[in-house]
Design goal:
With 268 residues, the protein is α/β, with parallel strands linked by helices. Helices cover 37% and strands 22% of the residues. The strands form two sheets. A six-stranded mixed β-sheet has the order 6-7-8-3-9-10, sandwiched between helices. Strand 4 and strand 5 (68-69) form a beta hairpin. The structure holds adenosine-5'-triphosphate. This is ABC transporter ATP-binding protein.
Amino acid sequence: MGASISLDYITHRFSPGAAPTLNKIEGRIAPGELVALIGRSGCGKSTLLHMLAGLMMPSEGCVRINGHQVVRPSAKWNMMFQKASLYPWMSVEENAALGLLFAGMPKRAAAKRVNSLLEMVGLNDKRDVKVQSLSGGQQQRVALARSLATDPDVLLLDEPFSALDAFARSALQEEVPAICRERGITMVTVTHDIDEAITMADRVLIMSQNPGRVVDELDVDLPWPRRHMDNGFQSLREGLMQRFKTTDDDKPGHSANPVGKGDAERAA
Ligand SMILES: Nc1ncnc2c1ncn2[C@@H]1O[C@H](COP(=O)(O)OP(=O)(O)OP(=O)(O)O)[C@@H](O)[C@H]1O
């Protein structure tokens, strides 16, 4: 079952006396909600996500999951990164089972749990294959199975599909929120890509930079699965671009490019 997340006035400075990278970020994410965090490069998205994962502590304020302050990483709030970080000499099954083995689950029980997940992510026939022989998309599927194996309440995604080809990316953009919805997992994904945010999230939070703050949000009230060519999708996309631009225009010395590098690359 998903967990609630509270951001309680999070401020962060990387060194004492420096300007804050994040400034007084507050908000609440409901159990089972799917949220995308979008903002320009360097605005502090990954820093904030690392705090949700318990990998970093803010200078001021705190993150609470189900009301408890997050002070360390946990298998109940798992993070997926841009790179799958698998052990190349281990099989798909061994990599996917790692979190369970670290948690003390016997090998046979871990393999049983992982097998149903590998089936779910479409890798059942690759169980015994070494991960180094897999494609990037397949490796991210192993990482996804590994993240889900510990039955997390929260799944945190730090641009996990940005290095994948368009087909693998689009399949996972559809499958990951579907899995989270089915299991009631709360999802927070960081992205530069407006289409990815609308494809995956119930709600998009927009961050500004210098200092990083959540300055706007947009509800994505579209049926699943989301289709880029649908009128509803396109009008939300335009709305989000506009909000992004307004956010940017508020800043002195803003760039003519209204969005992050994912969209900027497409526009080029
Ligand atoms: N360990 C660190 N020490 C000092 N400054 C840091 C450190 N980590 C990040 N920063 C700075 O904090 C700011 C926010 O970085 P962060 O990686 O969170 O941004 P981001 O929005 O995720 O960027 P991107 O989209 O490019 O990944 C940047 O200016 C970055 O240079």
